[in-house]
C-alpha cells in the first residue's frame, strides 16, 4: 500500500544506481586476482555488491561482457601507463610496472577466448595501447623492420611480466625491484658488443 510519502534516497540505493558498474568491476578484479578469471560468476559478484543477481547483467549482459569490460579498462590503463615514456626501454619498464600493479587486468587482457573480440570499447582501448607501444619503437634508430622490433620488445616485456606474476623469477630479483631487474635485462641483451 502506498502512503503518498516519498522515500529518501539512502546512500545504498544511490550507490547501486550510480556506481554499480564500477562496484561489480572492482569485485570482479578482486576475484580474478585471488582465484583467476575462471572463478567469476555474475551471481557471486551481485552478492558481493549487495544487489539482485540480475543487476550486473544490466551493465555487462553476461560473464563474457564483464571480462571484456575488464580487458578494455586494462588496455586503457596500459595506454595511460605507457604514454609519454621517453624511450622504448622505459615503455618496457612501465609495461612491467602495469602488470605488477594491475595483475587481474593483465590476466584477462591477453586471453581472447574470454572476450568479445568485436566490442567497440575493447577495440578502441587496444588501439590506444598499441599506438603507445608503436611510439616507443618509432624512436629507435636503424631498425630494418619496425613491426618486428615492436613484437620483439613486447615479447620481452610481456614475457618477463608473465614470469614475474607467476612467481617464476621471484628468487632471481634479489633485492631489486621488478623495474630495476627489467632494466638490467634489457641492458644485458642490448648492449652492443664489438
Walk me through the structure.
This protein is mainly alpha-helical. It has ten helices and no strands. The radius of gyration is 21 Å and the shape is globular. The N terminus is likely disordered.
Topology:
Layout: H1 11-35, H2 42-49, H3 55-60, H4 63-82, H5 88-101, H6 103-109, H7 120-138, H8 146-165, H9 170-173, H10 178-190
What are its keywords?
single chain; 194 residues; mainly alpha; globular
Give the N-to-C terminal Cα separation: 88 Å
Compute the number of strand runs.
Answer: 0
Name the helicity range.
over 70%
Low-confidence stretches: 1-17
Indicate the proportion of strand residues. under 5%
Structural class: mainly alpha
Mean pLDDT: 85
Structure annotation, total helices: 10
Radius of gyration: 21 Å
Q: Give a short account of the largest sheet.
A: none
Any idea what the shape is? globular
- SSE sequence, one letter per element: HHHHHHHHHH
Amino acid at each position: 500500500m502506498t502512503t503518498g510519502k516519498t522515500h529518501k534516497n539512502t546512500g545504498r540505493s544511490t550507490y547501486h544506481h550510480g556506481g554499480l558498474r564500477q562496484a561489480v568491476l572492482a569485485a570482479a578484479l578482486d576475484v580474478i586476482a585471488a582465484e583467476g578469471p575462471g572463478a567469476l560468476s555474475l551471481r557471486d559478484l551481485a552478492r558481493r555488491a549487495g544487489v539482485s543477481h540480475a543487476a550486473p547483467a544490466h551493465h555487462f549482459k553476461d560473464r563474457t561482457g564483464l571480462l571484456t569490460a575488464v580487458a578494455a579498462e586494462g588496455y586503457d590503463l596500459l595506454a595511460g601507463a605507457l604514454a609519454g615514456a621517453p624511450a622504448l626501454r622505459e615503455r618496457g619498464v612501465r609495461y612491467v610496472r602495469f602488470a605488477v600493479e594491475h595483475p587481474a587486468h593483465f590476466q584477462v587482457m591477453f586471453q581472447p577466448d574470454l572476450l568479445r573480440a568485436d566490442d567497440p570499447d575493447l577495440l578502441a582501448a587496444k588501439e590506444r595501447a598499441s599506438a603507445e607501444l608503436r611510439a616507443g619503437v618509432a624512436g629507435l634508430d636503424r631498425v630494418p623492420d619496425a613491426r618486428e622490433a615492436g613484437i620483439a620488445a613486447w615479447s620481452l616485456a610481456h614475457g618477463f611480466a608473465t614470469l614475474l606474476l607467476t612467481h617464476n623469477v621471484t628468487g632471481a630479483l634479489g633485492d631489486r625491484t621488478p623495474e630495476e631487474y627489467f632494466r638490467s635485462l634489457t641492458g644485458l641483451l642490448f648492449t652492443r658488443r664489438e
